[in-house]
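Async update (no meeting this week)

Hi team, since we skipped the sync, here's where things stand on the single-chain job. The sequence we agreed to prioritize is pasted below, unchanged from the tracker. I ran it this morning and attached the output directly underneath so nobody has to dig for it. Comments welcome in thread, and please keep replies under the output.
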Amino acid sequence: MQAEPKKSQAEKRAVSEPVSDPVSEPAPRPVSLVGEEYEVEVGPVAHGGHCIARTSEGQVLFVRHTLPGERVVARVTEGEEGARFLRADAVEILDPSKDRIEAPCPFAGPGRCGGCDWQHAKPGAQRRLKGEVVAEQLQRLAGLTPEEAGWDGTVMPAEGDKVPAGQVPSWRTRVQYAVDTDGRAGLRKHRSHEIEPIDHCMIAAEGVSELGIEARDWAGMESVEAIAATGSQDRQVILTPRPGARLPLVELDRPVSVMRVGEKDGGVHRVHGRPFVRERADGRTYRVGSGGFWQVHPKAADTLVTAVMQGLLPRKGDMALDLYCGVGLFAGALADRVGDQGAVLGIESGKRAVEDARHNLAAFDRVRIEQGKVESVLPRTGIDEVDLIVLDPPRAGAGRKTVQHLSSLAARRIAYVACDPAALARDLGYFRDGGYRVRMLRVFDLFPMTHHVECVAILEPAAKGS
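Output:
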C-alpha cells in the first residue's frame, strides 16, 4: 500500500488564497513538487541509474539511491504537477533490499556526488541490475529476447574488478574534476552544476589518485582533468581556466605533462610535456592526443578487442571497415589479423584522433584513415562490398541511415560496440530491417558503481542463421 504524501504546496495555497476569476487571470504556472515527499514501494530498475515507483496519484517517480522491492521515502528533486514523471531521491529506507549495503564512499548519497549510481548495492546486484536494463531495452526497442540475441544474461566484470561487498574497484583512469569558487577540486552533483568537494575519489585509478589533485589549490580554474595512461607511466592534466584567469604553477605528487583548454577556440594546447599519452592494448602502443578518446577502464581496450576479434574471426585477405575509429584501436587489431593481402579503412570525425590513428598505424601499408562523419565519408569512398565491419559509435548510436548503408555492404560479420543499450537496441532493430540478425551479444561491466555498461554485438546476415 502506498501512503499519501504530506499536504502539497497546491493544497496549502487552495486554503490560503482567494479564488481568482478564470476569465481575467492568466493560466497558473504548474506547481513545482520539488521537496515533496512520498512513501512508495519501489519497482523495477530503469535505464539511467534509478528505479521506478509511483505516487498514490499514479504519477511516475524515477528514484535514485534505492533498489527494486524496497519501501522508501522519496523526496522530489525535479518535476511539477501534471508532469509525465518526477525525479526523486530515496531519503529514508523503510524496508531495505537484501542487496543493499552501506555506501563505501563518504561522498555518495542523496544530494551528494553524482559520479556513482550504485554505491549502495552489492557488486553482484549491480551487475544483475545492469543486465535487467539491457534485457529491457532489447525487448522494448528491438523486440529481442536475450536468447534471440545470443546472450545468457550475464554482465561480466573486468579482470580484477570482482571485489567483496563494501570494497570498490579503482578503475577510472580519466577523471574530470570541477573546481569551486574557493579553488577546491570536486565532482558535480547529479544533474547539477553544484560541486561536491572531495578529498579522494574511490573509483579513480591509482595513477590518478597518486597525483594528489584534491589536495591542491586550483583557484582560477573551472576544471582539472587527470589522465593516467594504461601500459605506460604517462600522466597528464588538462586545465580549463575561468575567463581571464592565469594558469597556476602545477606541482603535483608525480611528474605530469600539462595542457590547457583555450578560452577562445576551445582547443587543447600544450603547456609543457608531451601533448599525448601512450596507451597499450592488444600488444600495441597507441598515442592518444589531449582530449582524444580512449576507454576509461584500464582493462577495457583489451577486453573489447578480444570480444570483437573472437566474434568477427578475421581471415587473411579480408577487407574491413573500422567506423568511428578514434585513434585506431580496432583498425590496428584488424590489420594484424587480415595481413598484407587484406585492407582496413578507418573513418573518424576528430582531426586530432585521425592524426593519432595515422601515426599509430603507419606501419601498415594497407590501412587508410579518413577524416569526417561516417554518414558523409563512407558513401564517397565508393565501397559497395566488404568482409567485416566494426562500429563503435558515440552514445547516440549510428542511426537508421548509416545502418541501412552498412546493411547494403554484404559484410560476413559486423561487430557493434556500444556504451548505451538503448542506442544499441534501436540500431539492432534497423539492422534487422536490413537483413541482419544478432548472432552473439556480450555485456561487460566496465564502469563499476555507475549505471553504464559496454556491449559487443556480433551480427551476421539473417539468411545464414535461418
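Quick observations from my side:
The first strand starts at residue 37 and ends at 41.
Confidence is low (pLDDT under 50) at residues 1-20.
Reply here if anything looks off.
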